[in-house]
Amino acid sequence: MTFTTLGLSDSLLRALANTGYKTPTPIQMKAIPAILSGGDVMASAQTGTGKTAGFVLPMLQQLSKGTKARPCRVRALILTPTRELAAQVHDSIITYGKHEKLSSTVVFGGVNINPQRQKLNHGVDLLVATPGRLLDLYQQNAIQFDDIELLVLDEADRMLDMGFIRDIRKILKLIPKRRQNLMFSATFSKDIRQLAGTICKKPIEIDVAPRNSTVETVSQNLYWVEKEHKADLLSELLQETHEQVLVFTRTKHGANKLVKRLGKDSISAIAIHGNKSQTQRTKALDEFKRDKVQILVATDIAARGIDIELLTLVVNFDLPHVPEDYVHRIGRTGRAGGSGQAISLVSREEKKQLRAIESLIKLKITPL
Ligand code: AMP
């Protein structure tokens, strides 16, 4: 199948030709026609599956047909849990929407609100936002919601995990009832289904990653190691590879401590977590992407949604408390058909977490 057969316009196909993508990914094959048909869509897909293009492309096509946004209004609202994801979705809009005559912007917290207010003045066709900042802008009368035709909740599961449910409910009350709804989530838990029930009308369900299953191309192993020896073991493992590695810690403090420790062993590492400013987070991610540092140490929330390609190894320095986070974490390796490895350093105290993860993924993680 090619992008042409999916019913995308010539101008979008031209933008796609520039990206070098040859064939649509499974989520794109299913989501693009479904969204173009105008129905609500509920899709289960992780980061790395190409889901962003899966909704951005058909949205651009739909919006190109209508009239441009009025001042202080938006026609399509895309909500994301993190600033990084918001920025990435907006980058995709710019890339794929290169030849469309549509306006877009991105708003998120942690940076000055005034430039964002100004950008909304003339109205935008597509707005990518994190929920809190969106509500701040609404309260400051910088934006009105009456022209919204299309709503996207990206990484809905993470939005719930991060406690955005109240903000989302507030936003839902403020926007028009008649609209197209698209919901994307890595996993479809009971809570997500419940939320979907209040948002979507008879959604077309798309499932490209079987629920709570782990990617088949990722080999998953563990080392039993006492807490105080984890850093030594990690350092040894990292010295054996020249590849870039994503390491997960449970806490922000743990991430900082680990970066310092690896530095002592001459391993270049950088941390990304919620206590860092937006500028620091962008810089860290950029340095990792440009291969200036070998190791990115991240907490679950900070790592969510960030687009780093082709990692062959992900290390869980600590196991996550929420088993679903394990699935998200290892989804960062073995993407796009390549093979990957996930190694977990597990201490005696983490046995319970390990069992919970194994029962979620229905797989025993074997020691190396
Ligand atoms: P996402 O799952 O949306 O975060 O996308 C993950 C990565 O896949 C991004 O870097 C995209 O640029 C890339 N991508 C999206 N669609 C395709 C495609 N059809 N072929 C190859 N790469 C793609």
UniProtKB/TrEMBL annotation:
GO CC annotations on file: cytosol
Domain Helicase C-terminal, first and last residues per copy: 217-368
Uppermost EC category: hydrolase
Motif window: Q motif: 1-29
Gene Ontology MF term list: ATP binding; hydrolase activity; nucleic acid binding; RNA helicase activity
Residue ranges annotated for the Helicase ATP-binding domain, each copy included: 32-206
PROSITE patterns to which the protein is assigned, alphabetical: DEAD_ATP_HELICASE, HELICASE_ATP_BIND_1, HELICASE_CTER, Q_MOTIF
Reactions that this protein is recorded to catalyse: ATP + H2O = ADP + phosphate + H(+)
Domain of life according to the entry: Bacteria
SUPFAM superfamilies: P-loop containing nucleoside triphosphate hydrolases
InterPro entries, A to Z: DEAD/DEAH_box_helicase_dom, DEAD/DEAH_RhlB, DEAD_box_RNA_helicase, Helicase_ATP-bd, Helicase_C-like, P-loop_NTPase, RNA-helicase_DEAD-box_CS, RNA_helicase_DEAD_Q_motif
One GO biological process term: response to temperature stimulus
Keywords: ATP-binding, Cytoplasm, Helicase, Hydrolase, Nucleotide-binding
EC number(s) given by UniProt: 3.6.4.13
Residues of the DEAD-box RNA helicase Q domain: 1-29
Entry keyword annotation includes ATP-binding: yes
Family: Belongs to the DEAD box helicase family.
PANTHER family, per the entry: ATP-DEPENDENT RNA HELICASE RHLE, ATP-DEPENDENT RNA HELICASE RHLE-RELATED
Protein name per the record: DEAD-box ATP-dependent RNA helicase RhpA
Species name: OM182 bacterium MED-G28
Lineage: Bacteria, Pseudomonadati, Pseudomonadota, Gammaproteobacteria, OMG group
